[in-house]
Each structure stands twice: as C-alpha cells, then as structure tokens.
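Support request, priority: normal
Reporter: lab tech (M.K.)
Component: structure prediction queue

Hi team, I submitted a job for Rhodanese domain-containing protein from Methylorubrum aminovorans yesterday, and the status page still shows it as pending. I've pasted the exact input below so you can check whether something in the sequence is tripping the parser. The sequence length should be 205 residues. Please let me know if I need to resubmit or if it's stuck on your end.
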Amino acid sequence: MARERSVRVIARVAAVTAIGPLLGLLLGAAGPADSPVNVPEPDGLYTGPPRGYTPATLKGATVIDRKGLEALLPEGPVLIDVVLADHRPAGLPADRPWLPTHRSIPGAVWMPGAGGAPLSPEKEEAFLRRVAELTGGDRAKPVVTFCRPECWGSWNAGKRLVAAGYSRVHWFPLGVEGWQDDHDTAVAKPDPAWTAATGARAAER
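Reply from support: The job had stalled in the queue. We restarted it manually and it finished. Here are the results:
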C-alpha cells in the first residue's frame, strides 16, 4: 500500500514538472489584454485589439467608478462616448433598412471610433477640435471618456485629452453597462459634427 502511494506521488510530481515549463511559456506569452490583473499602461496609445483587459490607471487622468461619476455630474462634465458603431450585417439585403440603436449615458456625446489607434491626423484633429467646442475651449472643464467594460477606446480617448493639455480628464472604465446597472440610459445618435468631419456613415454601421 505504501509503495502504491509513493508511486502515485512520484507520478504527480513528474506530471507537474513536465507541465510547468509549458505553463510558463504560455503565461509569458500573454500580453496585457490577456491578464485580468496588473495590466501596465503602454507608453503611448494602445494599438492592439480594442477589447481586452485594461490598466487600472491612466496617468494624468482620474479613474472613476459609478459613484465617482454620480458625484461629478453636478459639475456638468462633458461626457464622451466612443463606443464603436454596429456594422451592418453582411447578409442583410440592400433594400432592407438597417436601424441600429445605441444607448448611452444621458447627455453623452457619441463619437463612434474616436478612441481608435492609430487615427489618421485628420480624425485626431477632428476629435480634439470637437472636444474643444464642447468644453468652450476650457481645458480645465471636467471631461469623462467611456465606452464599454474592458474597452481600450475610452482609455485612448482619455490619453489623447491628457496629452492635449486637459487637466480634468476622467476615465470611466465601467462604461455604458456599468452605468445602466443603477441608472437609465438614453438613445444616442452619432455626433453630427464628428460624423461630418470624419466622413463616417453611421447609417451603414
């Protein structure tokens, strides 16, 4: 009996020893978006897949949760939603209307794709110009960027604003879903100024 137990223990140790290096290689190959904890901030904008685990911080900005956003709302912050617009289904007949609905935090300005990276210089200029209009040129006015949970777009949008000199940038990583857990949302249309400046065709997306 004792001999059998010893054999089983030795077998388990051998199995762990064999799997260990492979597990180490897999973990070592994982990028920031693959790890739910301690995701480091990239040096610049994040150019990888738009959805994935994000850092807990945004240097130069304030990271807020739902309570933090509730407390900020009385100051009238500019709310910038950068959720990507839905794409028209490939198999949908051309003569059939495509009327997607996007719901957002009430009062938010929806600029689909404004958190993408890289953006063309024209789109980046259009984004900063539109935010300047929304803030009345006041770079000390609070601005909140958000999209969906585990979305790099709102992180990038906040990063752009920090780099542009905005001093009260707030990043709300919980996004629309985090807000609607306790609050109503409202139907949002793509911001006309952003759409016109970037040539986006919201009706087809």
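Helices lie at 2-29, 66-72, 121-134, 152-163, 175-180, 192-198. Confidence is low (pLDDT under 50) at residues 1-34, 201-205. Let us know if anything else looks off. Ticket resolved.
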